[in-house]
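## Example record

The block below lists the input lines for one assembly entry, exactly as stored, with component labels intact.
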Amino acid sequence: MNRIEQSNAPPVLSFSDVEVRVGTRALLSSLTLDVPCRGLFGLVGPNGAGKSTLVRAALGLQALSRGEVRLRDRRLQDWRPRELAHQVGYVPQHIHSHWDLTVRELLQLGLAPPSAELLQDFELEGLLARRFKTLSGGEQARAAIARAMAHGPALLLADEPAAHLDLPHQHALMRLLQACASRSAVVIVLHDLHLAARYCDHVAVLSHGRLLRHGSPKGVLDDATLAQAYERPLQRISISAQSFFTVPIPEACR
Amino acid sequence: MTPARGSLGPALGLLAVLGVVVAGLSLSLGAAWVSPLRWIGEPGLERDLVWVWRAPRVAAAFFVGACLSLAGLLFQGVFRNPLAEPYLLGSAAGAGLGAAIALLLPQLVPAAWSLPVMAFLGAWGASWLVLAVGRIGGDWHSGRLLLAGVALAAILSALRGLILMVFGDESTNLRAIVSWQLGGVQTPTPAEVMGFVPWLLFLGVAAWRLAPGLDALGLGDAAAQSLGHRVPRLVAGTVLLAALATALAVSWGGLIGFVGLIVPHVLRWWLGPLHGPLVPACMIAGGVLMVLVDTVARSSMAPSEIPAGLLTAVIGGPFFLALLLWRQDRA
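Predicted structure tokens for the full assembly:
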């Protein structure tokens, strides 16, 4: 495990009293959160907790009802779109292309051509001429992250990139993101608490648009916080000091 | 698994050679065959026929084809839908309605002047309306844009039919409208031919500048925004440029379908889906195809002309279906 050391460097991304409302429904409420400039930052919580809304707000795609988002201590709306793109890489929840692109063509759409080292790290050299649509889920995720990281952004936002992968590919992807997190801040939306505990340096737990807790996975992912977030009792089954599975406790056993 | 992509340079070279051959054929073919040796001979009827009548018509056909296929490429790119083309999205129907009104107007304004202006207004108005509907609720939604375009195209076509029924009579204007609706390239004056050049340059450069945004849009709105593209502005700019290309094509060629659908498809199979190389390739290929269609239209039943719109539908439809089946076999 290669945990990023805590530093006193200013946060790369800050949410200050952020509120997002659609009609009468609050998607995010009074959310204040700093994302450190290095490390893998996991956003966890039940469906509808506001994780993807938070990512959209960080991309400048979500209008705020209140508060502000700052990237490198500058308000998000003060960045020109092109400048912002150079600072932030984004991997969407559903990785797809409407056109029949090859991997090489997909990488051309990035803001900079990928270096030979990046292609090697992401094991893409042999896939460049392949159709993106014919790749496996793991290969597609690697190609999409390589495109988002090619220009060396300060922040990578990944919205559930591990959601459609099998177990070995989920872990391979998390190790890849962990390596990226040694150079940039990486914010990843996760449903798997085990992956969050095992790979993330920081975790924020959201529920109903509110931030319940944030900090190191060990300090944050406790029974009480998870029960509050998921609104049901959960049991953690420990595998090692930093690794556990979480299962809901069946009603019959409560 | 590995697609064979053609390179832009050789493709443009091949299209240019094809264009020269087709243009040469088009200058010689017609109601009367004129040998290439007589194109630059002594002044006379045959030389006038080639340079005063056929050459401007070849230029106009090229212009119409280039505009139509560019409009198709832009609409397909921005709607991320292979069915998108000027005729499906209301843009051509808007231009058609505008042109029909121009042709039915009392002779206060000459149709030569009012037709292109009204076609412009119709295409732009229809495109703005589609954009406005697609933006209801604040967010852009390409599916809603496409559905709005289909509905508007049906409404505008019905309106055109209604106007023709109510205001049309046995005058020559009605004949002109029917003939124009079936599609047919007009013969421009030399000054009008010179006017095509800046339009083609403007359309080509503007579309080429939009190309990276259209490529990124294929990854989704959020991904395109994250790559630094202002998605609403990109969508609006692309739709309006495509509407302009449609209006120009409709002004000179009437209602000609399929070119805007077929050419971008075939070239995407040949050169790949990135829009930068597709812009010049589509304009040249569309132009060459339309010159060929127009040549067949005016020479196969000379001295009568077959409406070019009928030819593109009759030949283009089965050709496109055959290509689809061939691609399916190879996939």
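Residues 42 and 203 of chain A are 5 Å apart (CA to CA). Chain A has one domain: 13-222.
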